[in-house]
Structure formats: structure tokens, C-alpha cells
Write a structure and sequence with these properties.
The protein is of the alpha+beta class and 491 residues long. The protein has 2 domains: 1-408, Creatine Kinase, Chain A, domain 2 (2-Layer Sandwich), CATH 3.30.590.20; 432-488, no CATH class. The chain is built from 18 helices and 11 strands. Pathway: Sulfur metabolism; glutathione biosynthesis; glutathione from L-cysteine and L-glutamate: step 1/2.
């Protein structure tokens, strides 16, 4: 650590450690007022899911996938995700709402069959049917939050150049830095499952799960029965080279349909989707896939969660810890399947040790107050499991081991709060005018590129439109959507 720390100080790079970028993706089910699977078709006003970067669906057409534009820092990242969710809420009808939990309620046999067939994305039909046959419909209906994270580019470029040896390229070094952070997350996944797990009960039985188990648990989705590959197809994190070799073998032997079938807790992402490009041009971001929807956060994730993750990643980047991954999967499963109102002594001990190290690190780099607040929240949860999301959910679990009433009440209340707000996109109301909100909403529906920095801008191919509270002025006889379609010659 000493060499890296000295370099960061000498190059004035320490402030860049906590200037990472987040891009959030949320999956949520559209359900009816009684908690059944909604039959409503995908909104026709949205552009094709094949090309729209923000609005998509996953396994079923009612399983909405909302992808937020990346931004620096946790607050803007959550705001951007909320913005996409509010555009989706605009198009809910017939008292439908977004289910706030990662595990759907118990669906009837009719609903479950319909969910397995409710896919109008012809371009992924073969993959859809393959997943259904291999993993079962219930497992494919699990939802969550995916967190894409990248370090500040200037920081990583300078650090990679500094660590480059005569036998390694800067790209190789950058890959190693990102991969060591992925390894550390896998090693400490049990802690993230303890702190943020929020799937304490089962809906329909998951393929491969025992017929019965002691419920509630902390995070069924993060257990070995949840959102993961089969045990015999577990992908290694021992080294980047070993992971790439294993993934290539899984593809060559047709054990995996494509790289999309890798359900590991963190994926390595580059410019393209193939592994050769990843090694040649470098890892550009990490995609963390082990986060349940937080039912106590309107967007499904709290800024505090992102602050804690970013602080961990910055710490692991600098310290380059030596890790033992041999028992990572077993430890995480044990924590995931534990009663959410209980905590293992070793979790408190080892989690407390990491928090102490992170607090010292945060003090050394003079981290903003938000990161210390995140550490305080984590410390409280380590001391009292009833303060974790699953621990808080325990009080709402009914005698039949379900959260149906909680899910319906929470989801409907959030929709009603949105519907009662006069702003087109309420989360943007304090920052942007009504006209800007309407233009952004229309741009998202059309799948146009939007950017908030350095100024608000909507783009399509090589054409751009800069926005201010008063410019452009939309004529009173057309809508924001019609204005954008004319401006970019879309229709």
C-alpha cells in the first residue's frame, strides 16, 4: 500500500479515489392490484427494447428492466434511476404497480405459466426458452439491482501507468486493478448479503431449492438456490486468466448459451461483449449483481449503499489485499440462509474489523461526510440485525410466510405518491423546469441519448439539442414528443 499511497499523494490523486461513476439497472415486476401478474402489453409509446438504452424487459414482458444513464456519485445515480422508474410509472394502467421486492409473490399455476410465455422479444426467444428449460420460470423471475461502477478515468490511467512494469502493459495493469476489486467483493460478499439482503421468503419454489426450509431467511436470491449458476458450473475468481479460460470452455462446450448466462456476483465489462476484447482493450467497469431490491428505498437502492460500496472499492484498490476465496461461496450461503433477526459472531467480528479499517482509510483520504454516515449505518446493522432490510421485513411476514400485503401496500403507495405529484418527472422538479422534464421524459421513451453534464443535452446520432429552462420553446400545439420527433426527423 505504501508505494501506491505515496504515488497518489505525490500526483494529487487522492481526491479522485471517491469520484467514481455509477450506472444503475433495476428489475421490477408489474403486478395487478391483487398481486397477480399483469397482462398489460408493453407500452407502444416506448421505442424498441432492442435499441432503447433505458427501457427494456427481462424474462417476461411484465418484468421491467430500467437502465439509468451513468453519473458521478451516489445521489445523482439514484436520481437517474428514479427518473427512469417515474417514466415507467407514467404508463401504468388499471391500478397496476411495481412490486418492490426481489422475490415475486406466490403466483398461481396459471400466472406462472403465463409468465413463462409472456415474452414478445422475438430476437431473444431462443435464449428465453433455453433459460426456462434449464433454470425454471420461478428462478428467472427473481429481480434485483445491478450496479455498474468505474473508477475515475484519470485516476486509473495514472495508477496503471505507474504500476506498469517492463513485462506488463497499462491495459494489463488496469485489468488487474479491477479484477482485484472484483475478488475482494466476492471474498466479502457475505458482508454485503448480511447488510443489504432483502429476500427473506420464497414465492414459487425455485428449481434446485429444497422442498422446505426454515423461513424466513436473509436473502434467498443471494443463496446457492437463488440468482446463481448451478454449483457444478460455478465460475472461478481465482485469477483473471483462469476465469477467462473457464468461460471460454463453458461456451465452447455449450454449457453456457452465451456470456449472459454467467450469473456471478460481479461481472467484468469492457467496450464489447467478447472476452478477447476485454483482455485486449481493458476492463472499463464492474457490474455488481448481488444486490436485492431494497424495499425501504423508493428507487430500490439507497445512496448509503452505493457510498459504502465505493469506499470499499477505493480501499481495495489502494491496499490490494491478499484474499482467501476458497470458502467465499459457502460463507455467503450460510449468511444468506440465516434467520434475518440473527447474526453470526464471526460476521460481527470480521465485519467490524473491515469497518474499522475503512473508517481509518476514510479519515486518511479526508472522505466527505456521506461516507462516514454510510459506515455508521453499516456499524448499526452489524450490531443489530433487526436494522438490516431483511431484519426490518421480518415484522411484516404473515403466518403463511409471505410478504404479499407489505408488497402491495408499499408498491401502491409509491404509485399514488407519484400520481398525485403535478410534475411530469417529480425527482427532477427541483432542478429542471416542467418543459425540460417533459422533453427528458419524451427522450427516454424514444430512446434518445440524454446527458446532464456539462449541460443538459439530448442527442441522436450526430445531432444534439441543448436544453435550458426556456429553450427550446415548444409550440403550444405540439407535445414534447412531437417536438423531438420533428427536431431529429424521427417520424
Amino acid at each position: 500500500m505504501a508505494d501506491i499511497w505515496s504515488f497518489l499523494q505525490s500526483q494529487h490523486l487522492v481526491p479522485h479515489l471517491l469520484k467514481g461513476y455509477f450506472g444503475l439497472e433495476s428489475e421490477q415486476h408489474r403486478l395487478t392490484a391483487t398481486g397477480q401478474l399483469s397482462r398489460a402489453p408493453y407500452p407502444s409509446t416506448f421505442s424498441s427494447r432492442q435499441t432503447n438504452p433505458y427501457l427494456k424487459t427481462d424474462f417476461a414482458d411484465n418484468m421491467l428492466e430500467m437502465v439509468a444513464p451513468p453519473s458521478q456519485g451516489s445521489r445523482l445515480a439514484v436520481r437517474n434511476l428514479t427518473m427512469i422508474q417515474e417514466v415507467e410509472l407514467t404508463h401504468l394502467k388499471n391500478h397496476d404497480f411495481l412490486w418492490p421486492l426481489s422475490v415475486p409473490p406466490v403466483f398461481s399455476a396459471t400466472d406462472l405459466h403465463f409468465a413463462g410465455q409472456f415474452n414478445s422479444r422475438a430476437w431473444v426467444a431462443q435464449y428465453h426458452d433455453y433459460l426456462q428449460a434449464k433454470y425454471g420460470t420461478s428462478r428467472e423471475l427473481l429481480t434485483g439491482i445491478h450496479i455498474n461502477f468505474s473508477f475515475d478515468r484519470h485516476l486509473l490511467t495514472q495508477l496503471s501507468a505507474h504500476l506498469t512494469s517492463t513485462t506488463e502493459s497499462a491495459i494489463t495493469c488496469q485489468n488487474q486493478l479491477y479484477f482485484q476489486c472484483a475478488q475482494a467483493f466476492v471474498a466479502y460478499r457475505w458482508l454485503f448479503t448480511y447488510l443489504f439482503g432483502a429476500s427473506p421468503v420464497a414465492g414459487n419454489r425455485l428449481s434446485g431449492a429444497p422442498v422446505s426450509f426454515s423461513a424466513p431467511v436473509r436473502s434467498l436470491r443471494n443463496s446457492n438456490f437463488g440468482y446463481t449458476n448451478f454449483a457444478e458450473e460455478t465460475i472461478t475468481y481465482a485469477s483473471l486468466a483462469a476465469q477467462v479460460r473457464q468461460l471460454n470452455a463453458m461456451l465452447a462446450n455449450q454449457r453456457f448459451f452465451s456470456l449472459h448466462e454467467f450469473y456471478g456476483p460481479v461481472r467484468l465489462k469492457g467496450r464489447a461483449t467478447d472476452l478477447a476484447d476485454l483482455l485486449a482493450n481493458g476492463i472499463e467497469r464492474l457490474e455488481f449483481r448481488a444486490f436485492d431490491l431494497d424495499p425501504f428505498a423508493a428507487s430500490g437502492i439507497a445512496p448509503t449503499t452505493l457510498d459504502f460500496l465505493e469506499l470499499c472499492l477505493a480501499y481495495w484498490l489502494v491496499t490490494r489485499p491478499t484474499l482467501d476465496l476458497t470458502t467465499a461461496r459457502e460463507r455467503n450461503h450460510a449468511v444468506a440462509m440465516q434467520d434475518p433477526t440473527e447474526v453470526f459472531a464471526w460476521v460481527q467480528r470480521e465485519g467490524g474489523q473491515l469497518v474499522a479499517q475503512l473508517r481509518e482509510f476514510a479519515q486518511t483520504i479526508k472522505a466527505p461526510a456521506a461516507y462516514f454516515h454510510a459506515l455508521a449505518t453499516v456499524q448499526q446493522r452489524l450490531q443489530a440485525p433487526t436494522k438490516t432490510p431483511s431484519g426490518r421485513l421480518a415484522q411484516f411476514i404473515t403466518s403463511d410466510h409471505q410478504l404479499l400485503n407489505f408488497g402491495i401496500t408499499t408498491g401502491q403507495r409509491r404509485y399514488q405518491l407519484f400520481a398525485q405529484d403535478p410534475a411530469p418527472v417529480p425527482v427532477l422538479a427541483e432542478t429542471y423546469s416542467v418543459q425540460e422534464q417533459r422533453l427528458l421524459q419524451a427522450a427516454i421513451e424514444l430512446g434518445l441519448s440524454i446527458s446532464f453534464t456539462p449541460a443538459l443535452q439530448i442527442s441522436y446520432h450526430h445531432q444534439s439539442l441543448s436544453l435550458t429552462p426556456t429553450e427550446p420553446l415548444i409550440p403550444s400545439d405540439i407535445t414534447a414528443r412531437q417536438f423531438l420527433c420533428r427536431y431529429f426527423a424521427l417520424e
